[in-house]
Fold this protein.
Amino acid sequence: MASRNPRDRCVAVLGAGIMGCCLALFLARRGIRVNLFDARDRPMAGASRWNEGKIHLGYLYGADASLATARHLLPGGLRFKALAEQLIEQALDDYVTTSDDMFLIHRDSVVDAARARAYYRAVDELIQHSAGTGDYLCDLRGRTTRELSPGELAAIADPALVTAGFGVPERSVQTHWLADRLCDAVDAEPGIEQRMGERVTAVHRCPRPDKHWEVVTAAGRQGFDCVVNALWEGRLAIDATVGLPRPTEWSARYRLALFARTPQALAVPSAVLGIGPFGDVKNYNGRDFYLSWYPAGLAYTSDGELPGGEDAVPAFDDAAVARATRDGLSAAFGWVDDILAAGAQTRVGGGWVVAQGRGPLSSATSTLHRRDAFGVSRLDTYYSVDTGKYSTAPWLAHSLAQEIAGG
Ligand SMILES: Cc1cc2nc3c(=O)[nH]c(=O)nc-3n(C[C@H](O)[C@H](O)[C@H](O)COP(=O)(O)OP(=O)(O)OC[C@H]3O[C@@H](n4cnc5c(N)ncnc54)[C@H](O)[C@@H]3O)c2cc1C
């Protein structure tokens, strides 16, 4: 495609989550015409709106001692702020957690405290030897993990449940705020034609000589020079219509969490209880919180069963999820009750997590503890993107836009 004038090309981007929106914006700003398809009425309505927004540096994947996951996640984490700010033309600073995450090792963690300590040191080293440490959401130059004293640990978590704790220089962004800004940016971009409310059912080779691929929806079929499949939960079904093979191992989970806004600011930490199927709390600005207790929020899980579209979103009882989330978290972190005290506005939200790997997180042998296989597959000018993580989407989108635009 590199030899043609960008303005002559039309690219179909399937899926208007963070991956599809970032890619559509990068392409349109290079003069390429984009049709952005999504089954929902508005962009950014799925997993990319309702997640905790951890901008990964690799610390979470302590069960992957090879550091392959950390290495795969790090470049996207370091570039997230600059690329996202370029797209939305606004600073992220007011919508980012302001202090280090407290990583706490549960007594039933799949990795014990000694191995976790060694892992965090290794990730510290990796970061310090990477380019762009000054570009992250906080300045990482010279910053390392700090082990909590027994007194500090006891102030955060029930000492009977945790074996060690570490302050980790990782940050999270408020995803629904960024979702609204990305919607604004897509709305303002004349080079993007929004095809909302259109469910894609197949992609085929195009019989027309001047186009390569045909995108099929209930409304009909249309030819494009290039197609990018960023459909996340719907991706593998459409790849199958093109003839791209499925990964040998993958799983689908529908995960829910509790989003809370308190009437007054609270001075409580952002904390992650790991490593395994436990939970976390994000304090973005003292009033806006993300609360997740993994078993309470797991509405669907399957090793190798594809969800069949929007109507496959599992039914769940908001009140029951909220109650179980609170119970699970407050057993470890008593201060969670302060967040959910009278007057807090709460909402249960979530989305699909489709990942290469399978097995319960409570098992050290689950291949979900390793996430170094996501990225882009290609068949001529058809690209399929396994976003992998929210935090890696702008970086993946940026490099894919460069490839498609031929520069
Ligand atoms: C509870 C939870 C917490 C998470 N926490 C983090 C975190 O802290 N950090 C992190 O990096 N990642 C996190 N993730 C993962 C992250 O949310 C995803 O990796 C990311 O949002 C995927 O982006 P996407 O654009 O590929 O998919 P999506 O945002 O899901 O977008 C895909 C779009 O495709 C549309 N679609 C699907 N099929 C079709 C079809 N056939 N036709 C038309 N449209 C279709 C959907 O409607 C959707 O809008 C979390 C996920 C969940 C659920």
